[in-house]
Predict the structure of FAD-binding PCMH-type domain-containing protein.
Amino acid sequence: MTTTAYWRPSSVAQALELLERPGAVALAGGTRLGGERTHEEVEVVDLQALDLAGFRAGAGDELTIGAMTTLQHLADGDGVPDVVREAARREHPSTLRAQGTVGGCLATGHPESELLAALLVHEAVVHLRTRETTEAVPLAQVLADLPLPAASLLTAVTIRTSGPAAVFRTARTPADRAIVAAAARASDGGRLLALTGVAATPVLVEPGAVPDPPGDFRGAGDYRRALAEVLLARAVEAIA
Ligand SMILES: Cc1cc2nc3c(=O)[nH]c(=O)nc-3n(C[C@H](O)[C@H](O)[C@H](O)COP(=O)(O)OP(=O)(O)OC[C@H]3O[C@@H](n4cnc5c(N)ncnc54)[C@H](O)[C@@H]3O)c2cc1C
């Protein structure tokens, strides 16, 4: 990746205008973007001067998390549900947690992200802006539609914090990234279940309706499906 221009806007409006320039790309913590090896020419729009980090309590049990909140800040956050804090801690080693952001994680949609699975069961709604529109979109839909629309910015994500929740996982070693992880949460409307490692992004699932997972060197599709069913059952039992 070759950077042909560097911009540091001081407002979201300015950032959105800059993101309309040809080749413009948003830079948050840079843990993924900084490692990309392509021959593409880009104009970097650095989001660090925007006021998009931190937490805001809303009505009832709502908590809004700014897109530039780092994964470490989330892992340490007061009022953040335990499974979300723990998933943020598992996302990266501490050096990358101090840099990587919630917005970068949402925009990436990594299939093994336990943080995304935890946010899904906490009914996450993403605040998505373009110059013309401001939308609140369910996280499941944002992930299904990735990549993000051109010249758009994630500014925050709102979750519901109440209700018992649990995450169960299987990895090659305790410190390794999970091959499959299952998250469950009891909410007013019933039960929410999510899986990592079975689709192109973490997904919400219905009981007994695990998608057909693709296999890789860490686990064939059938093995992943079997793991998903066992881990979901454990997560459901834990929140009962
Ligand atoms: C060694 C290593 C391992 C990794 N493993 C994983 C992993 O397992 N799972 C995972 O999810 N990621 C992984 N990543 C990628 C990345 O670290 C995480 O997704 C991270 O949380 C990205 O956050 P960031 O702030 O560093 O994003 P950046 O690298 O700055 O940006 C990542 C992408 O998100 C876009 N973006 C960032 N913020 C916004 C925003 N507010 N609005 C719109 N677009 C935005 C950027 O334009 C870019 O396309 C890994 C990275 C490294 C270096």
Q: What stands out?
A: Residues 25-33, 35, 47, 67, 96, 99-101, 103-105, 107-108, 110, 112-113, 148, 153-154, 177 surround flavin-adenine dinucleotide (CB under 6 Å). The first helix runs from residue 12 to 18. The radius of gyration is 18 Å.
